[in-house]
């Protein structure tokens, strides 16, 4: 009889999913697969309560050596192949190239482009590196393409921007929720339970989307406007709320300013006019206005649909107006919020990746903000550069005489994800030096002169900030491969080679403690947040100015963050999109995500289970349109805009408007949706108009057609 006990299993590590802004809690244990890791439920984490989508469950697949970068790569001549190299050679090449470009063309000829998936510590030190070591104003990040319009509108109305001003747990308790241009059933599935619970509790869900998505199928009322109609729709609903006596006059008088100008603008958007602009029947507009205006509490949540437009800031402002007019802001179970996309889209801009911001969500143009951050960094305030170019403007200028000529890019794949991606790819090729830090050989990394392999979420400590403003802690569960380094180490080594020998810690907690000091007193104040508190409290909500402060789960209950404490209406009016259909390009194109893929697909396309579920691009079109064009389901079709052409299989469905086609944007090559999209920019947020452009659709002639003829 064998009395020997089996060995105890290795303890699992509490951490978080590397993908979307929910930052779902999970546990990582030892597994038997190629990655050596296994995802376990973490039911005590309040955001997802143990639930995970397929992306989260399969995230460890990317830890396997055969799908990732495990050593630096160098290109010895333009157009030549990438070859393996050691870290010393690679970093020497990068430092020499950055120094040479700066010496020959000036500091602003060197640029940095970051990502919304980087931890707060990495985002913070990347911004510091750009401004202190390189001295460049030209740093921005792909989060500019995420929620910058919502952020601009949020700050304009409330004086402060946090994705959600309340926790997700409040959603089931509101009376009526309007979700505009979001599809969480596919983009953040664990959040869907909150919308289901809302309806189970007797609340009403209204979804605004040109497509009948999986989320729209859950709604009590689905409004299906033309792409670009969201601004007119919001104005039309405010018109009806006013006309039907549903304005909360006491709230407007006591807690807001600017109502009369907003009212005047809205009254020009009567139901019949809005129906003509949007295609939404007037009777549905009236129903939506009565449901929302008559509810005791209510929320409006926007996502990329209304935000990724050349009028995105005004569009979000119009939806905020609806909340303010009905008294559904700054009160329990009410308010406006934005469904952030990327895992750290919130924290990534709060702490210095964005061209116009310093840590703590401070303006880089504010002398007091500059003085505070400079004192933490130990540099003169006047040595800090001013605001640089926004993301698309930075990319558009790459390789030009007055643009960035050497670019350090971390955690982003603009060759697939940027608007007008064919043009952006040309600009990337025009650089004197392109350095990419990534964990996989993305399409952008394939263009680089130097590729630096970096650690993943399971191999490092670090914080992110989810869509609620909850700062959470990822913990290191596994050692990275021998040839892989953290971006923190990379920045430390580059700074030293460029003459700055201090201020770039390689320890994440040390970097976070410096971030806390730099953010202290700012809008996004993390001074009272520590690794210890985050672990003990399942995350801490900012602002949290002191260690004895509980964190701020709900914003604006007493006052808004404006100088007078009042929320501000926006006097906005409908205007056309940057590009509307015409005879040559008679259809709208809108883009988005699918359940099994994420962002540019650089990670998820390497996971067999996810790739099997969503193996390639497609073009969604209505049966009437397909019949008129002679297109059968599954046939290849070409979608052409003024910027490019994409080819993918037709997917015929009555879930989309007959004047609109849809493409997901996760794939490169012939089916790259962003070859088509319009880089027209919002004048305030500098957000490109991803969500609509004018296209034509044509059946692709195949070999079978040639034989038949």
TrEMBL record:
Keywords: 4Fe-4S, Iron, Iron-sulfur, Metal-binding, Molybdenum, Oxidoreductase. Pfam families: Molybdop_Fe4S4, Molybdopterin, Molydop_binding. The keyword Metal-binding applies. It comes from the Bacteria. GO terms for molecular function: 4 iron, 4 sulfur cluster binding; metal ion binding; molybdopterin cofactor binding; NADH dehydrogenase activity. Gene3D superfamilies: 2.40.40.20, 3.40.50.740, ADC-like domains, Dimethylsulfoxide Reductase, domain 2. SMART domains: Molybdop_Fe4S4. SUPFAM superfamilies: ADC-like (SSF50692), Formate dehydrogenase/DMSO reductase, domains 1-3 (SSF53706). The keyword Oxidoreductase applies. Its cofactor is Mo-bis(molybdopterin guanine dinucleotide); [4Fe-4S] cluster. GO terms for cellular component: membrane. GO terms for biological process: respiratory electron transport chain. Residues 10-67 form the 4Fe-4S Mo/W bis-MGD-type domain. PANTHER family: NADH-QUINONE OXIDOREDUCTASE SUBUNIT G (PTHR43105:SF10), RESPIRATORY NITRATE REDUCTASE (PTHR43105). This is Molybdopterin oxidoreductase family protein. It comes from Streptomyces kaniharaensis.
């Amino acid at each position: 009889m064998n009395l020997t006990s089996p060995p105890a299993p290795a303890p699992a590590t509490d951490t978080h999913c590397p993908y979307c802004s929910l930052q779902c809690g999970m546990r990582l244990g030892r597994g038997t697969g190629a990655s050596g890791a296994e995802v376990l439920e973490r039911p005590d984490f309040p955001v997802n309560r143990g639930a995970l989508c397929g992306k989260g469950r399969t995230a460890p697949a990317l830890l396997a050596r055969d799908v990732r970068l495990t050593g630096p790569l160098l290109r010895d001549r333009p157009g030549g192949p990438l070859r393996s190299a050691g870290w010393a050679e690679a970093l020497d090449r990068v430092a020499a190239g950055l120094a040479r470009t700066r010496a020959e063309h000036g500091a602003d000829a060197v640029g940095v482009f970051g990502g919304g998936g980087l931890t707060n510590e990495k985002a913070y030190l990347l911004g510091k590196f750009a401004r202190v070591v390189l001295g460049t104003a030209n740093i921005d990040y792909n989060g500019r393409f995420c929620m910058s319009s919502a952020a601009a509108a949020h700050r304009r109305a409330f004086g402060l921007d946090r994705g959600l001003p309340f926790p997700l747990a409040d959603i089931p308790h509101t009376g009526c929720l309007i979700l505009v241009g979001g599809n969480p059933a596919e983009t953040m599935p664990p959040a869907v339970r909150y919308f289901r619970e809302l309806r189970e509790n007797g609340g009403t869900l209204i979804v605004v989307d040109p497509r009948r998505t999986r989320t729209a199928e859950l709604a009590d009322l689905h409004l299906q406007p033309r792409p670009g109609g969201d601004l007119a729709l919001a104005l039309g609903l405010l018109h009806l709320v006013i006309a039907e006596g549903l304005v909360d006059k006491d709230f407007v008088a006591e807690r807001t300013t600017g109502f009369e100008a907003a009212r005047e603008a809205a009254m020009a958007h009567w139901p019949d006019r809005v129906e003509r602009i949007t295609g939404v029947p007037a009777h549905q507009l009236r129903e939506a206005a009565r449901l929302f205006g008559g509810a005791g509490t209510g929320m409006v949540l926007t996502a990329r649909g209304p935000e990724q437009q050349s009028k995105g800031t005004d569009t979000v402002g119009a939806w905020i107006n609806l909340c303010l007019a009905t008294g559904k802001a700054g009160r329990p179970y009410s308010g406006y919020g934005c469904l952030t996309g990327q895992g750290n889209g919130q924290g990534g801009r709060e702490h210095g990746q964005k061209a116009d911001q310093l840590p703590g969500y401070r303006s880089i143009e504010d002398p007091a903000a500059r003085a505070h951050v400079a004192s933490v960094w130990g540099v003169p305030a006047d040595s800090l550069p001013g605001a640089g170019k926004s993301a698309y403007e930075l990319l558009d200028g790459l390789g030009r005489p007055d643009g960035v000529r050497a670019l350090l890019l971390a955690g982003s794949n603009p060759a697939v994800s940027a608007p007008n991606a064919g043009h952006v790819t040309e600009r990337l090729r025009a650089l004197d030096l392109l350095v990419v830090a990534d964990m996989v050989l993305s399409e952008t990394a394939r263009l680089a002169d130097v590729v630096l392999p970096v650690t993943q979420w399971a191999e490092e400590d670090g914080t992110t900030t989810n869509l609620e403003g909850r700062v959470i802690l990822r913990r290191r569960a596994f050692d990275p491969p021998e040839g892989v380094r953290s971006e923190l180490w990379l920045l430390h080594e580059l700074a030293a080679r460029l003459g700055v020998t201090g201020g770039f810690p390689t320890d994440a907690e040390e970097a976070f403690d410096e971030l806390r000091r730099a953010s202290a007193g700012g809008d996004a104040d993390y001074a009272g947040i520590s690794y210890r508190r985050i672990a003990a409290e399942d995350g801490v909500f900012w602002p949290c100015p002191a260690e004895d402060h509980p964190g701020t789960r709900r914003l604006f209950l007493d006052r808004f963050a404006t100088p007078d404490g009042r929320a501000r209406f926006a006097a906005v009016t409908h205007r056309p999109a940057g590009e509307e259909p015409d005879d040559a390009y008679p259809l709208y194109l809108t883009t988005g995500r699918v359940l099994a893929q994420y962002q540019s697909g650089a990670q998820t396309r390497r996971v067999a289970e996810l790739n099997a579920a969503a193996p390639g691009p497609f073009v969604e079109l209505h049966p009437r349109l397909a019949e008129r064009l002679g297109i059968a389901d599954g046939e290849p079709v070409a979608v052409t805009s003024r910027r490019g052409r994409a080819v993918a299989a037709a997917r015929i469905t009555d879930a989309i408007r007959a004047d609109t086609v849809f493409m997901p944007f996760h794939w490169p090559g012939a089916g790259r949706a962003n070859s088509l999209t319009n880089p027209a920019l919002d004048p305030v947020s500098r957000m490109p108009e991803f969500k609509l452009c004018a296209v034509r659709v044509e059946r692709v002639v195949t070999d079978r057609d040639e034989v038949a003829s």
